[in-house]
Amino acid sequence: MLKPKMTPTRELVNLDGLWAFATDAMVGDAPWTAPLPSGLEAAVPASYNDLFIDPEIRDHVGWVWYQRTVRVPRGWDGERVFVRLDSATHHGRVYVDEALVAEHSGGYTPFEADITELVPAGAEFRLTIGVSNELTNETIPPGELTVDDLGVRRQRVRADFYNYSGIARSVWLHSVPVDRIEDITVTTTVEGSAGVVTYQVDATGTRDVRVRIVDESGAQVGEATGASGQVPIPDVVLWQPGEGSLYDLVAEIVDGDAVIDQYPLPFGVRTIEVRGSEFLINGRPFYFTGFGKHEDSLVRGKGHDDAYLVHDFQLMGWIGANSFRTSHYPYAEEVLEYADRQGIVVINETAAVGLHYSIAAGITGENRRTFAPDAINGKTQAAHAEAIRELIDRDKNHPSVVMWAIANEPATHEDGAREYFEPLIRLTKELDPTRPVTSVNMFMSTPETDQVADLLDVMCLNRYYGWYENTANLAVAEIRLEAELRGWAEKYGRPILMTEYGADTLAGLHSIFAPPWSEEYQVQLLEMYHRVFDRVPEFVGEHVWNFADFQTSAAIFRVDGNKKGVFTRDRRPKSAAHVLRQRWTQVGNDKPKTS
Ligand code: BDP
């Protein structure tokens, strides 16, 4: 789905700002499409949870309603008019006055509604958006709805981050021509000093299509006609980690000399390949340094914020990180566009987190089969397939995206995992044959027990030796970690990436004895992991968990959230940040020497 854009043939009105807001309890039996009665206003984009001081709003389970009036610009007569949401977490419904015009499940991908027939150009209408945060065993991510002893509905999530809900990204009103470009797909290869761009333009109607390729100075460097084809770029400037060189593919549908629709798509020319145990970008072994991140900040929750985007990337640049993973859901499109321009490498993940029903068995006592009719079942798998489709559809053209992670820490050691994952991995590869595919592995899925690893291109491991296991015993943790990594290398011979490792750390807690939670322990744990990484030749990268402290549901092992950040939630460095900076600014994009 193309991001709405202002072009010579398309126009755009941003609908962000303050919207009337109410929970379903506040609306009661009244129709939610009537003016909302609560007197509350909510900021868009932002999760609603932390905006208000009322715990009943913060922990509300079910539908909430956002409302505002919108006027269609009078000049849009004869165009098609759409309302587009960049996301609604987790289910969205869009009403134009009383009419339901769109419904969507999946909290981190966009959807839109064609409202042309309902509102003429120049007219005003009431736009009501419903958002539900309910999660069940058949949604992505999965969760459970329960009712407590007082009859209050509760949402249980199976992920270690707060269930922030609402409209966390922008809302748009946009116009497109009746005959228009609906989608563009660009893939690239390199032949000698030339780049080869393979493109496909999907358009409505039977008009002629032409494309031009324009470099960053605005000079045209290639052109072609037809809905699909190849365009060479002589003396191409490659997109490289650290150098986000981009081109625009300007697609047009034309009628003789008249341009009916125009859409410029930024793209980069680069190649990705997994060869043996190496991860190659532009034919050169790449070593990942960086983080698993979250979209998370004070007050906004998961609300997208360009200021945090710029600041987080500044901090990643300062520390020498060349990459991050969009743990545990697709991030705002602005993040990927910025990564494209900044030359930051991205592992792009679906929202399939929590497909593991006994991960916390030691704490909760719950020990259930994950792949079962009353747990992760065929309907969950269908929702998961749709999540993969929507992610690839949205993000396929971003050069920064070098790999798809289709899940985080599913129970891939349990019976049923192969039947569940094999079709999803196949689907991902069919939808995008150009990028490697992974599923991020958790500690119970070892080289001996894992049932899907042979289907994956890269072994992405989350490991907590020295934290959840061998707590406060880094010497033993070092031996266990190395033994396991060598086990993966020996069995599969594929690249191994540590997608999570780290320790909860209370900023400001110091101790000469370096106990868990102290800044010293975080430093010593990371240094121990790095010694091991540098001894394993198949190792291709390190993503510390997490970039910054983040909010979670209340739990006895969480102190106002997860504190494994290298930066605090307000982005101040802990001691570990300086240690990482020293290592990563030296390592660059190359693997540290194996000792
Ligand atoms: C991993 C999860 C991550 C958690 C982390 C932790 O992938 O979401 O936040 O552990 O416990 O299991 O800190």
Report on the structure:
The protein is α+β, with helices and mostly antiparallel strands. The protein has 3 domains: 11-176, Jelly Rolls; 181-267, Immunoglobulins (Immunoglobulin-like, Sandwich); 296-587, Glycosidases (TIM Barrel). It has 10 helices and 32 strands. The strands form 8 sheets. The protein has an 8-stranded parallel beta sheet, covered by helices on one side. Strands 3-2-5-10-7-8 form a 6-stranded antiparallel beta sheet. The mean pLDDT is 96. Beta-D-glucopyranuronic acid binds at residues 160, 328, 408-409, 442, 462, 500, 545, 562, 564. The site of beta-D-glucopyranuronic acid has 10 residues, from loops.
